[in-house]
């Protein structure tokens, strides 16, 4: 233990001696946590709508007013013909065209049916799909309002279904509540993953690795001495991120903090083992940085942070399940937002333990110590 203690003292002195590294470890992640949730917002609002009105009736005006007051649409043009509306789409000043045909009100009153045509700019598939869905929902609601005006004059028909729903765990559908815990995981992953990947290879570049190799330090002691300081840093960064999330975004974990930190402790062991494994294979810091960037980018994109894992194809789901970040993002959201208990996350914890054992064992075996 004395050997391990001396190695830890050496590592902590090296970390705090580097004045340029400390802001990267502690300050930059907090700044990113302040900025990224504001940009990483998939709520589709302020959709530009061009209206082609060939009817100019009272019903059309009521419909357009209802759409404009929904808070999702911005009316960018009110035209008599389709051509100027299409030009707005081509110039990217409109996302959707809604065309109200001639005799819309007359057909609705006399024939009890009328048609409205929608054309969406599908270059941005997400915005086009959600915008069309919002507009369809508003049109359906408007259709029900029109029918209710006529129902008192008609005999009661079949019963209607009154649909009521509630949003659990995020009642106001605040997207930041969903994104901030995931972004916090991302920042801890980037900081600890990159620094761990550069650690051993830095010793190779400056030549101190040869001095360590001729000492009686065992391989597992060397790896543990490299890992524990960044494990502590990961814990501190995560704690600062939780405090910032509470102070700035008002996010208070619903679940048990001890359970959250227990999972974090295991996750950091797995992540740092992965970084140290990259470092044992690399010959210089540039090579280690690019290899770490390659894998961490895959971890980020396939972790479920931006795109749900359930929506991925089968082969992508397999890859996502084979990354430790995926399970940690899921667990952080479960504990922070849902208040999940140990029984709910025990499978993910078992997977992280397997990652930690395999990656660190691999790193220890691959570290070549010559005497």
UniProtKB/TrEMBL annotation:
Matches recorded under PANTHER family: MEMBRANE COMPONENT OF ABC TRANSPORTER YHHJ-RELATED (PTHR30294), MULTIDRUG ABC TRANSPORTER PERMEASE YBHS-RELATED (PTHR30294:SF29)
GO annotations of cellular component type: plasma membrane
Main location: membrane
Name this protein carries in UniProt: ABC transporter permease
Family: Belongs to the ABC-2 integral membrane protein family.
Keywords: Cell membrane, Membrane, Transmembrane, Transmembrane helix, Transport
Cited PROSITE patterns: ABC_TM2
Membrane topology type: Multi-pass membrane protein
Domain ABC transmembrane type-2 positions: 132-370
Top-level taxonomy: Bacteria, Pseudomonadati, Bacteroidota, Chitinophagia, Chitinophagales
UniProt organism field: Chitinophaga tropicalis
Compartmental location: Cell membrane
InterPro entries for the chain: ABC-2_transporter_component, ABC2_TM, ABC2_TM_bact-type
Cross-referenced Pfam families: ABC2_membrane_3
Annotated GO MF terms: ABC-type transporter activity
Stretches that traverse the bilayer: 21-40, 178-201, 228-252, 258-278, 290-309, 347-365
């Amino acid at each position: 233990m004395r050997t391990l203690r001396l190695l830890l003292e050496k590592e902590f002195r090296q970390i705090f001696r580097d004045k340029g590294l400390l802001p990267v470890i502690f300050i930059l992640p907090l700044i990113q946590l302040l900025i990224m949730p504001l940009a990483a917002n998939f709520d589709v609002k302020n959709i530009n709508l061009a209206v082609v009105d060939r009817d100019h009736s009272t019903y059309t005006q009521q419909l357009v007013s209802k759409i404009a007051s929904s808070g999702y649409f911005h009316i960018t043009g009110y035209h008599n013909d389709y051509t100027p509306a299409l030009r707005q789409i081509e110039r990217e000043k409109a996302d959707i065209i809604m065309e109200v045909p001639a005799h819309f009100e007359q057909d609705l009153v006399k024939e009890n049916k009328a048609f409205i045509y929608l054309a969406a700019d599908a270059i941005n598939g997400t915005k086009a799909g959600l915008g069309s869905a919002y507009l369809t929902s508003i049109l359906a609601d408007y259709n029900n309002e029109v029918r209710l005006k006529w129902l008192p004059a008609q005999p009661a028909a079949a019963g209607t279904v009154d649909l009521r729903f509630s949003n659990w765990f995020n009642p106001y559908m605040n997207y930041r509540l969903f994104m901030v815990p995931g972004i916090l995981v991302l920042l801890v992953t980037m900081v600890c993953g990159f620094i761990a990947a550069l650690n051993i290879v830095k010793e190779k570049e400056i030549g101190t690795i040869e001095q360590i190799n001729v000492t009686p330090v065992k391989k597992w002691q060397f790896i543990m001495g490299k890992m524990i300081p960044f494990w502590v840093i990961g814990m501190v960064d995560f704690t600062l991120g939780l405090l910032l999330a509470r102070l700035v975004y008002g996010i208070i974990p619903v679940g048990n903090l001890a359970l959250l930190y227990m999972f974090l402790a295991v996750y950091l062991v797995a992540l740092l083992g992965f970084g140290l494994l990259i470092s044992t294979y690399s010959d210089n810091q540039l090579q280690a940085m690019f290899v770490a960037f390659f894998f961490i980018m895959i971890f980020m994109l396939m972790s479920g942070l931006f795109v749900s894992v359930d929506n991925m194809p089968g082969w992508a789901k397999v890859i996502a399940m084979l990354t430790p970040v995926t399970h940690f993002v899921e667990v952080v959201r479960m504990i922070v937002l849902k208040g999940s208990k140990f029984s709910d996350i025990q499978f993910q914890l078992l997977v992280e333990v397997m990652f930690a054992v395999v990656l660190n064992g691999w790193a220890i075996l691959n570290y070549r110590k010559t005497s």
